Amino acid sequence: MATTTTSNAFLTTPTKTPSEKSKKSHHHFPNSDSKSRFEAYNRLQSAAVAFGEKLPIPEIVALGGQSDGKSSLLEALLGFRFNVREVEMGTRRPLILQMVHDSTALEPRCRFQQKISNFNQYNSGIVEGEEDSEEYGSPVVLASAIADIIKSRTEAYLKKTKTAVSSKPIVMRAEYAHCPNLTIIDTPGFVLKAKKGEPENTPDEILSMVKSLASPPHRILLFLQQSSVEWCSSLWLDAVREIDPTYRRTVIVVSKFDNRLKEFTDRWEVDRYLSASGYLGDGTHPFFVALPKDRNTVSNDEFRRQISQVDSDVLRHLRDGIKGGFDEEKFRPFIGFGCLREYLESELQKRYKEAAPATLALLEQRCCEVTTELARLDSKIQATSDVAHLRRCAMLHTASISNHVGVLIDGAADPAPEQWGKITEEEQSESGIGSWPGITAVIKPPNSTLRLYGGAAFERVIHEFRCAAYSIECPPVSREKVANILLAHAGRGGGRGVMEAAAEIARAAARSWLAPLLDTACDRLAFVLGNLFDLAVERSCSRDSDYGRKSGNMDGYVGFHAALRHSYNRFIKDLAKQCKQLVRHHLDSATSPYSQVCYENFQGGSGSGVTSMYRFSQPLVGSFSLELSEGGPALRHDKVRDQENIPPEKDAQETTPGKGVETREALRESQLTVPETPSPDQPYSGLRSGSAYSDICSSAAQHFARIREVLVERSVMSTLNSGFLTPCRDRLMMALGLDLFAVNDEKFMDMFVAPGAIDILQNERQSLEKRQKILQSCLNEFKSVARAL
């Protein structure tokens, strides 16, 4: 550990700052105003630590490398040793050391912030807290016990939090006749490498934690660096510069100064070193201190005498051991532990005085906030026994959520879409649905990269569904499937076999490919509407805070909010299920054999489209057959001979339309005339080129396109809008109300009074009441301080 120097006048409270540059300090005991101000801040600091209050209290934060002398400096400031460095506490948790000058305390009285028992609201049990009281425990008599307490508290807390270091401070109050009025936060020392058994990232965690502790602008940084380190190679000085680039609130201390003194012989050498010119700037003057190296057990009086002796020895060497001495007028106020101690106390008192008005105003604000919070808790506790009041508030809140859902559907830009909206890709991934089934192409509707929610996001999904549906073409059908369908129709007779076969192929394809798209569209739309619950809650909260609570104060009723969310999600899920059934019904209707969709004019009139479609219904003329096998000729004349199942030319005759039945040549001996199996090689009017297979597939694709167009444009769009949006606007409040409130009082109260809930509220109120009491006490104290300024 490092050493540092001290002054002769050790029992007094200094008031001079180095900027005064007087050769002699004027020491006196603290006056009542500065003492009361210091005590007020000490109590406020303890309360802030206990309750987690973020108060800009002027504080000194000591930082530096692990062997740069912070712990030795703390012992010198206290005026007695307690071997804090032996426990290496600096690598674990910060120590807030509140030093109080008390002329009656001839022996040090050290007390730690008390541990208290807390009611744990998560497991409903009594657990021991960790320095969670603003009160202090009994004085520690033995100085050696201080190190043990620091070590045990550190290890217990780190084990509890399962961490290697923690920013949760240990608070110790030391009252002594030989210490100044000073509060210092001793931080973990910077290290380059983790100790054995520690995580490798421990150095980074320490650096990050110290930076966090030192960053608040109301804190004074006390940076220690031993004299053997050159300014140009100081690693930790760079870390300090990141926190305070101009050193405006940094006090730099060069420790173990006596080790460096041996290198100086001439005045110019020591003056150049003391000025630190070129590295710290002209306005920054470091302090140079040394402390006793002897670590043997000595009395407190002997320890303070040794500190004063080292101070005197350093000054004597500078005056007598250096040729020409040193610039005493310029550098004397910065040499020795006594000067540093004096400066720190006076600087902190000055900051306390400057911050008192702002601290008073902040305390008044916090007292008002805590009082308001306490009133809210009282109201909540009272409401747990008032069922009618709870029902009214719950109904108002539910109505507010329902109304905000409707507003978001109709179009709103609050809350901010940039924060709450989602792009198409996020909707796909977060919903767990992914891309559209059966489609390999990337579907990007317009505005896919904009963050939308509510009605806008709903319409975007609708448009995305249209894009996905129109990107599907009628899939290719095998020749075997075409033959099975076509020949079966031909076998049943009639003149529309080819057209019916193409229509049946289109209907099967539509059922197979469009049904998954419809289900996906419903799921995506349900996801968009499901997201509106959180947005509605956010709008309700912001409106209540802006215009006063009108929707019922339901903060903290976790059970009710969970039930409301569950009911809303179930409502949306039921809508999605109903919409799937409706759009499936439309799909079944459009793909029914009795539907005329496939025979309607694609152009919407009675033009060539109708003619081309109905040409298939004309009688099949001539002794032709449809060849569907791959490689077979598209059209064959009835004179083609020597083909299986083709009657001879001389016996050719026209067949009954649709049947394709030819008689063979006249009965020969012992032969019968056998009806021929229909051969799909027959021509049909209007198709004079290309294979029958490709013509039928082309016709099926046209039928498929017509089914898709009718389904998407006429049925699905209006169904999805009326199936999702209309119920959300008109029936949401009714559905939620029946679900949550159409129950008896006992079941209704289950949402509000869970087992142990009353105890939790009472315990929370107790803790808040204690905080209010402490803050009010601090406020009254600071009012007295302000009057004395």
UniProtKB/TrEMBL annotation:
CDD domains under this entry? DLP_1 (cd08771)
Q: Which GO terms describe its molecular function?
A: GTP binding; GTPase activity
Return the Low complexity bias intervals. Answer: 1-17
Basic and acidic residues bias spans = 636-653
Gene Ontology terms: cellular component: cytoplasm
Extract the PROSITE patterns matched here: G_DYNAMIN_2
Query: For the region Disordered, what residue ranges are annotated?
Result: 1-36, 636-688
> What domain of life does the native source organism fall in?
Eukaryota
What positions does the domain Dynamin-type G occupy? 54-357
Q: Report what the protein is called.
A: Dynamin-related protein 5A
Top-level taxonomy: Eukaryota, Viridiplantae, Streptophyta, Embryophyta, Tracheophyta
Encoding gene (name): DRP5A_1
